Amino acid sequence: MKDKDVKSEKVLNFTSSLSGTMGFLGGWQVCHNLCLWVITALSLIGITIVGMPLLFLTKVAIPFWIAAVILFLISLIFYFKMKCISKNLLLFNGGIIVAGVPFRSLNDYSIIFWIIGGILIALSLISYLKEKFRFKGK
Fold first, then answer.
1. How far apart are CA 134 and CA 49, in angstroms?
2. Is the pLDDT of residue 138 over 60?
3. What is the DSSP letter of 49?
4. What are phi and psi of 86, to 5 degrees?
5. Residue 16 gets which letter from DSSP?
6. CA torsion angle for 34, 26, 131, 11 (degrees, to 10)?
7. Which of 17, 35, 63, 104 has its CA 20 to 30 A from that of 3?
8. Looking at per-residue confidence, does 72 or 32 come out higher?
9. Stretch 86-93: mean pLDDT, rounded?
């Protein structure tokens, strides 16, 4: 029975991590920053690139973000049914998904999504650090 629990926990952790990663890749600004990082890294070793080498990611930002939301919903279902996923990890992933909303029609509100996502991420990190450094005697 314990092997089954360990395997299901690994699958759930992977699903939750994948959800956060997809949400992260869903934001156009993230794709743009990744391109700039690749150009910078390649220029440090003497390779010059003109243009954006990861521009193709902007075409798949919305499908990545939708996949992230679906995986996040699956993680939430498992959390509420079995309580086997860290609430801090779910909060962190939710913040990444909110901050990475890729829809161009919502560009006027993107700063609001960044703020809300940033607050969720900060809350998850604060909660994690509180739990990590909680004194045993209190």
1. 49
2. no
3. -
4. -65, 130
5. H
6. -110
7. 17
8. 72
9. 88
